[in-house]
Design a protein that fits this description.
The structure holds two protein chains of two kinds.
Chain A (H helix, E strand, L loop, with lengths): L1 H9 L13 H32 L1 H10 L3 H28 L6 H26 L1
Helix pairs in contact in A: 2-3, 2-4, 2-5, 4-5
Chain B lengths: L6 H28 L5 H9 L1 H29 L3 H28 L5
The chains are: A mainly alpha, B mainly alpha.
Chain lengths: ~130, ~110
C-alpha cells in the first residue's frame, strides 16, 4: 500500500480543467458516468415505489398520483435522460469493443449522436408526461 | 470467481450484464409505452407472472453487479485515500446487497391471482 501511494504521488497532475480539451466523446463519457451515478442513487426510491405499487390497489393509485406531481415529473425526466444516455452510450462502447466505428472521426460522430439522441428522447417524453 | 472483480474480468461482467439488461429495458419500455391505461390488476399480474418475476429478479442481480463494477471504477479513479476508499466500497456493496434482498422479497411476495 505504501509503494502504491508513493507511485501515485509521483504521477504528473494537471487539475486545470480549462487547459484540457474536451472532445464530444469526452463529454459523452462524463455524461455516461454521471448518469450511472444518478441511476445508482435512485435505486432505493424506485424500489420504494415498486414495493408500494404492488402492495395494494390504494397504494398503486397513490404512487400514480405521486408520479403526477411537478417535482417528480422533473425528476422523472432527469431519470429518463440518465437511462437513455447510459443505455445508448453503453451500446456505443459495446460496438467499439467489437471495433465497430473505432475510427476517430466516426467515434466523434457517434458520440454526438448519443448526446443528441439522449436529449431528443427527453423532449419526446416531456410531451408525453406534461 | 474472486470477490474482487478486477481487470478483464470486471470489464467482461460489465458488458455481459449491460447487454442482458438492455433487452429487459427495451421490453419493459415497450410495455409501458404501449399500455394505454396501466391498472393495478394489469401491473400486478404482469409482475407476478413466473417468467416476468424471474426476469425481474435476474435483472436486478445483473444491475447490482453492473453498478458494483461501475461505482468501483469511479471510486478507484477519484478516491485516493485508502481508508475513505475502503469505507465507500464497503458501503456501496452493503447497499447493493440490501437493495437486492429488498427487491427479491417484493418479488417473492407476489402470487398469481386465481
Amino acid at each position: 500500500m505504501q509503494n502504491f501511494n508513493q507511485r501515485i504521488n509521483k504521477r504528473p497532475k494537471n487539475l486545470n480543467l480549462l487547459s484540457v480539451k474536451f472532445p464530444m466523446s469526452a463529454i459523452m463519457s462524463v455524461g455516461h458516468r454521471a448518469a450511472g451515478i444518478l441511476l445508482f442513487l435512485s435505486i432505493p426510491y424506485f424500489l420504494y415505489l415498486l414495493q408500494l405499487s404492488l402492495n395494494s390497489e390504494a397504494d398503486f393509485v397513490w404512487v400514480k398520483e405521486q408520479l403526477k406531481s411537478p417535482i417528480v415529473k422533473v425528476y422523472s425526466l432527469l431519470m429518463i435522460w440518465s437511462l437513455a444516455h447510459h443505455f445508448l452510450a453503453g451500446i456505443r462502447y459495446l460496438l467499439l469493443d467489437f471495433d465497430v466505428g473505432i475510427e476517430k472521426h466516426l467515434a466523434q460522430k457517434s458520440a454526438l449522436i448519443v448526446m443528441a439522441a439522449g436529449f431528443i428522447i427527453v423532449i419526446v417524453f416531456s410531451f408525453k408526461i406534461i | 470467481m474472486s470477490f474482487q472483480a478486477k481487470g478483464l474480468q470486471a470489464w467482461l461482467w460489465q458488458r455481459i450484464t449491460g447487454a442482458f439488461m438492455a433487452f429487459y429495458i427495451l421490453y419493459v419500455s415497450q410495455v409501458f409505452i404501449t399500455t394505454e391505461q396501466m391498472t393495478y390488476q394489469i401491473w400486478y399480474t404482469w409482475l407476478a407472472h413466473p417468467v416476468m418475476n424471474t426476469a425481474t429478479g435476474l435483472f436486478f442481480l445483473q444491475l447490482a453487479i453492473h453498478a458494483w463494477v461501475g461505482m468501483r471504477d469511479i471510486v478507484l479513479d477519484y478516491m485516493l485515500d485508502d481508508t475513505l476508499r475502503l469505507l465507500t466500497l464497503t458501503t456501496i456493496s452493503f447497499f447493493l446487497i440490501t437493495c437486492s434482498l429488498a427487491l427479491l422479497r417484493v418479488l417473492f411476495s407476489l402470487s398469481m391471482p386465481g
